[in-house]
Amino acid sequence: MCTLLFIISGVNPNSSSLSGGIRFVSWNVRGLGHVHKRAKVFSHLKSLAADVVYLQETHMKPTKERLLRCSWANQIFQSTFSSKARGVAILIRRTVPFRHGSTVSDPNGRFILVTGHIHATHVTLLNLYGPNFDSPTFFRQIFNLLSSLADTHVILGGDFNCVLDKHLDRSTQSSQLFNASTVLNNMLSSTNLVDVWRLCNPTGRDYSYFSQVHKSYSRIDYFLLDSKLMSKVVCSSYHNILISDHSPTSLVLDFCGTKQQGNWRFHPSLLSETSFCQFMTTKISEFLETNDKQDVSDSILWETFKVVMRGEIISFESSLKKERRKRLFEIETELTQLEQDHKVSSCPSLFQDIIKRKFEYNTILSSQVTDQLFRIRQKHFEFGDKPHKLLSRQLRGLQASRAIYKIKSRSGEILISPKAINERFKEYYEELYMSKSWGNISDWLGKLDLPKMNDAAREALNSDITIEEVSKAIKSFPNGKSPGPDGFGIELYKKYSEKVAPLLLRMFKHSFHTQAFPRTLYEANISLLLKEGKDETECSSYRPIALLNLDMKIFTKILANRLNGHVGSIIHPDQTGFIPQRFSFFNVRRLMNIMYHRHWGASKIAVLSLDAEKAFDQVEWAYMLRVLEKFGLGEQFISWVDMIYRHPSSSILTNQDRSAPFFLHRGTRQGCPLSPLLFAISIEPLAIAIRNEPSIDPVRLGNIKHYISLYADDVVLFLSNPERSVPVLLDVVRSFGEISGYTINWQKSEFVALTTNLDVDFLKVLPFKITDRLKYLGVTLPKDPKLIFKLNYLEQVEKLKIDVEKWRALPISMVGRINVIKMVSLPKFLYLFLNLPIFLNKQFFKVIDSVVLPFVWGFKTHRISKVHLCKSKLKGGFALPVFQFYYWAANARTLAYWQEGYKKIKSADTPPWVVIESGGVENSSLPALLFSSSNSRTKVNNFIVSNCVKIFSQIKKGCGLPDTSIHTPIYGNHAFPPSCLDASFDIWTQKGIITLKDLYIDRQFASFTQLQNKFSLPASHFFHYLQIRNYVRQSIANFPSLPEEGSIFTLLLSSPDSKKLVSGFVKAFSEYLNSKSDFLKMAWEEELGLLIGDEVWERSLCMIHSCSINARHQLIQFKVLHRLHYSKTKLHRIFPSISSICDRCKLGEGCLTHLFWTCPKLYNYWLNIFNCFSDIYNCTLEPDPIIALFGFSSSLLHLSSAAQTTVLFGMVIAKKIILTLWKTDIVPQFKMWLTELTALLHMERIRYILADKLSNFFDVWQPFLDHVLKQSPI
User: Fold this and answer.
1) Which end of the chain has fewer CB atoms < 10 Å from its terminal CB, N or C?
2) First-to-last CA distance in the chain?
3) What range(s) does the Reverse transcriptase domain occupy (predicted)?
4) Looking at the domain assignment, is residue 247 inside a domain?
């Protein structure tokens, strides 16, 4: 058997001491019942120098566990089953510094899970024996078990009884991969676990099991390791198959490696501490009073301020932690005594004291938890328990993308040492950021006529920075972002903006005077993100994100805010990246129009997509500054940019290691607010040079010359006569690269010939990849438009199926699954909907639903119609996406450009694709196609336009919209032939009668005299008036009154650049959902024997999502109102053998009303809860099923909104307690409710802290807390 060694030479894999390493051995021993067998096994384990042993198939009865005791193992953990089957055990050598935490034992003898610490590392040891049949359910169970763990390092080993790779893990070939293997592979990718041996033997073969029956070998025994532990791996190996038919598998981990001390970072949760805020206010004032002197420069004052404040914060944190630890110890001691006393005497006051102590304990712990949650980021915590375990999975997935546990050295050797990985990246980026420019910048730029910033814009860019701009920049940054090297977070800057902003402004002004910023402003950390689909072992596969210090980010944000408002005046519409009011789908739509246009005659047409290498990272600063000067941005502004790039340095962050800093000499930092705009300006001269080069022939379409399309560094070129254009183009790009640093990977650049008449010999010598499809901005565009659907939409459906199968094992609620669809799947489809305007029929969306809905329901019976899940949250639903609505909305948003573009078709601001599409219609116009009858015929010569017309016809039919709208244009309307034949109607347009709506005055169709008076129409146009009146009478409903057409047509007339226009359309389409819930209200009325008012019902639905931040609580309320729980009567109807009688009282029929309310066993439970709230708010709150079940009743209106919030939350928890005991005969108790509610308040408190609204928490909950704690103060 082969042994794999990792970067360690001269190591004996069987040595008992590998640089302080601990040897883990996993072995299926096939029974340890016989004394001789045990002796052989333990002898062999000794020879392997095993420290931690995972044994499978011990075949031990529970009464025989003592047989595994031996002299060298002092900690033994077992899960037994019988003397003939299963059984697993973990044995730990005495010398291993393992401190036991907890144990989870499978009663079926399949797994044993042990948590604890090895040295300072928290570990979870999980030993499993997988079923010897295809059982994906077992591995889903393991997945659920792992998902409940947090802040630990999993070491999973055992006999899995299935292969991970059907080709490499078997000695004989098999085309079948069992479902268990598929689930296991999905689990690995989702949980950030690594098959250690396979990782470093990607194509190697070794086996752990020999089948006597099939005479074949297979690898079914593994160690799966948390990727965060990969840096601790010393070696992994399979040993000889002896004693058993399985080989021992070993793994050596070194837990003694020194850990680099992390950088300090501010914990925003401190701002919720009143004492801290007062402390900081005092310390800032003391600092300024002591140090703000005339002989201290503003730059030194700022640097000193940061150093002193960091020290003060660290001091405060240390003191606070000591106080908390002391108080926690005191509470634990008090609780121990109180609980002992309460066991003897069930005195209510003792229970009250226990509740008080536990609440205080949780409150202190909440402060510590909040720190961790801030690292997870606020928006993830806001999902609360929606996908509690999903969130864990998402975070581990994020860590998986950032944990770099192997990288190739310059020579191609695989490095796994954290220090070696960090050094390799430092080496790579230090070389990448070295200047390599050698061309003459002035000569190259001197040949171009670059547009100049106008005087007003230049003056705005170069004016003095104001305190208002500093404050605005501080407010603009979102909370929860990773800080720079100095560790300060934006939350602190925001809290003390009145103090910080003036100091920053003074420092900026002093730096302008000295032409250099203080040293720390130039520092940054570089965080690395793996690009999708890239080789994780290549340094070039990672995107470097610069984590700047906030003071520098604030300054660059100020410059970016200024430049943002004017950059569009100097950047051609061909560039859409990072320019306001320009979008990526402009580029895709333009490319599609050119690719799918019929190019007649002898034209030779091609498109070329350039693959730029590290474009942002290779911008030469001397070139960039010269370009800014040529564009006329102004001396002061350019000086500021020059200061930013005067002495920048960076350190590489990998696996919590931080490299030594190194200086940068080129590149725009990804993570700097100003960088995108600087890059757009820097690449613009290339576009200008290409447009100005007479030997490069553009594609002429829509009366526009199409040369180039850019989205930041993604460049597509449109070429006529490629034989003549390409050689010149190559020269232009190469010469530009010499001065700017711009580098093209020609082998990865793609060339698509759109006509068939290109010279074959010419194509053979091109340095590009010749292809029949273009991958551009995330979509695939084939030459044949019929393949768009297959290569994009169907491919995305297949990816969705794969994702759903992977997510199937996620232990999350229905709400969590809906959120997965909304957060992960919907954006991918929406991107396609926005960029690829092709007609999709209803069947396509049924296919999506056939994948999504089973997943949402957990692959169980669908208990209610989809429309109730799709309702908005205000209507009591969960806003499950209706994919067809998003498809309609995305296309309707782009169609709004047709209306907008028609108004200014000759304007330079009109997107080129709109101009092309307007030219693809004969005897009509784009708005006329939208708003007039779809039955009328006109000639459309554009593939995209014809698809858009079909899409909008589908929208009108689906929403019951009229064929002809009052927004239909009069002139150039194919459905009104006179407007296309008689130019007189153009006069009407010029006079202001543009659409049919303009013919109405005071909501009535105007007479000719009224139109004459308002628009000055000549009397000779009376016949034209009669023509248009006849057309309106036939086409528009309610003639002569102005009809109501709803919001969809109105939205189409909105500015297409409007924010949230897509969501506006989705909301409008959702109004057409038939989601009435009257049948549910009637069912409750029938069972309760009460009438439920419509207002109460609607408000109860609306309050589902305000009952708690916790999504599982919201789901409880949703299920109760929608009657989704299985009652005894419902189960009896499905399974007649099941009794319909209530399990608790054994008296009444177990309908939902009985199980939640009328059961006599629940009387005291509900009475005590209502009495509790009556005491809290000093009122009489009679037990009411409407309040208990729905959370709202008119009888609560006399209470404050805060009190209503508390009652609603309390009722949800009351129902939660009942549901916890749903399948038992145990009677819920008031104490259970009070304990649960009190325990949950610390999570509520965290929520308010994260929102910086702790005072609101006390506004809501103080009366309840006073009631619970009133007997004696804490």
Assistant:
1) C
2) 65
3) 510-781
4) yes
Per-residue pLDDT for 284 more than 80?
yes
d(CA 1250, CA 491) in angstroms, rounded, equals 11
Q: Is the pLDDT of residue 873 over 80?
A: yes
Does 545 share its domain with 626? yes
Confidence (pLDDT) at 373: 42
SS3 26: strand
Q: Are 232 and 251 in contact (CB under 8 A)?
A: no
% residues pLDDT > 90 (the chain): 52
CATH of the domain at 147: 3.60.10.10
1241-1273 burial, b at 16+ Cβ within 10 Å, e below that, comes to: bbbbbbbbbbebebeebeebbebbbeebbeeee
Assess if residue 810 is contained within a domain: yes
* The pLDDT of residue 83: 66
Q: What span, in angstroms and rounded, lies between the C-alpha atoms of 590 and 599?
A: 15
Strongest mean pLDDT among 607-611, 858-862, 925-929, 963-967: 607-611
Q: What pLDDT does residue 383 have?
A: 42
Both structure tokens of 565: 């408002």
Q: Which domain covers residue 1130, as residue numbers?
A: 1078-1228
At residue 1063, φ and ψ (nearest 5 deg) are -65, -30
Contact criterion met (CB below 8 Å) for 328 and 361: yes
Residue 365 lies inside a defined structural domain of this protein: no
**The pairing of beta strand 524-530 with beta strand 649-654:** parallel
Residue 1000 pLDDT exceeds 90: yes
Task: Provide the greatest CA pair distance for the chain.
Answer: 118
> From the CB of residue 1079, how many other CB atoms can be counted at a distance below 10 Å?
8
Q: Are residues 807 and 679 in the same domain?
A: no
Q: Is the dihedral of CA 928, 931, 936, 941 positive or negative?
A: positive
Give which of 652, 316, 270 is closest to 485, Cα–Cα: 652
pLDDT (mean) for 998-1015: 92
d(CA 798, CA 522): 47
The average pLDDT across 764-783 equals 93
Q: Which of 819, 927, 887 has its CA nearest to residue 1065?
A: 887
Distance CA 540, CA 534 (A): 9
Q: Is 507 exposed, middle or buried (0-12, 13-18, 19+ CB in 10 A)?
A: buried
Torsion of CA 273, 275, 277, 279, to 10 degrees: -150
- pLDDT category, 148, cuts 50, 70, 90? low
User: Does 1058 lie in the same domain as 1091?
Assistant: no
Q: Are residues 64 and 113 in the same domain?
A: yes
- Angle among Cα 479, 484, 486 to the nearest 5 degrees reads 110
Structure tokens at 1171: 């009495």
- The answer to whether the beta carbons of residues 805 and 863 sit under 8 Å apart is no
Of 807 and 468, more confident: 468
Output 1209-1212 pairs: Cβ under 8 A, ≥24 positions apart: 1209/1107, 1209/1108, 1209/1113, 1209/1237, 1209/1244, 1210/1169, 1210/1172, 1210/1173, 1210/1237, 1211/1107, 1211/1169, 1211/1187, 1212/1107, 1212/1108, 1212/1113, 1212/1116, 1212/1117
Residue 695 has pLDDT above 50, yes or no: yes
> Residues in the chain, how many?
1274
Last residue of a domain, one of 208, 232, 254: 254
Q: Is residue 12 part of a domain?
A: no
Tens digits of per-residue pLDDT, 803-853? 888 787 666 788 888 888 988 899 999 999 999 999 999 999 999 999 999
d(CA 1245, CA 386): 18
> 1002: which 2 tokens?
């005071």
> Smallest Cα–Cα separation from 224: which of 178, 261, 193, 182?
193
Burial class from Cβ neighbours inside 10 Å (0-12, 13-18, 19+) for residue 817 reads buried
The share of the chain scoring above pLDDT 70, in percent, equals 90
What's the average model confidence in pLDDT over 572-581?
A: 92
Instruction: Judge residue 947's burial from the number of C-beta atoms within 10 Å of its C-beta, 0-12 exposed, 13-18 middle, 19 or more buried.
Output: buried
